[in-house]
Amino acid sequence: MSTTMATKATVERKWYVLDAAGKPMGKTAALAADLLRGKLKPTYTPHVDCGDFVIIINAEQAVLTGKKLEEKKFRRHSGWIGGLKEVKYKDLMAQRPEFAMKLAVKGMLQKNNMAAEQLTRLKVYRGAEHKHAAQKPEVWDR
């Protein structure tokens, strides 16, 4: 019995729409990461980038469970002494919900060279409108 191995030439990419309204941010991000990697395809091959395009809409209506909204912080450092900047997720979700969702998905991808390429296929929008209607995306409802 032979094993089918996907190659870059044989990969067919589809477009999927995920609605984050009223759903936990982590569950939406985990599903998006699986779609970006191609893990839900029968032809999944770990060392080949065989994932699909993912559009996440209503990112501002995603829910953070527990006390994460008040206690969780996004931290970045400039590299200089005293250059640590912290922003609570309450403020981050109010000002830049697309960035918060993209961070969540990035954290769930593998830490290798393919992750940067997979992240370019992720499109996140604050509201229900997106500009990818020409690609005929399918709504993911499984």
What can you see in these coordinates?
The protein is of the alpha/beta class and 142 residues long. It has a domain at 15-65 and 97-139: Ribosomal Protein L13p, Chain: A (Alpha-Beta Complex), CATH 3.90.1180. 30% of the residues lie in helices and 18% in strands. It is built from five helices and six strands, in the order βαβαββαααββ. Strands 5-2-1-6 form a four-stranded parallel sheet, covered by helices on one side. Strand 3 (73-77) and strand 4 form a beta hairpin. Helix 3 (89-95) crosses helix 4 (97-108). The longest helix is centred in the first third of the chain and has 13 residues, at 25-37. The protein is globular and about 55 Å long. The relative contact order is 0.23.
- Give a count of the beta strands, DSSP E runs of length 2 or more: 6
* CATH topology assignment of the domain at 15-65 and 97-139: Ribosomal Protein L13p, Chain: A
Mean of pLDDT: 95
- Describe the sheet with the most strands: 4 strands, parallel
CATH class wording of the domain at 15-65 and 97-139: Alpha Beta
Helix content: 25-40%
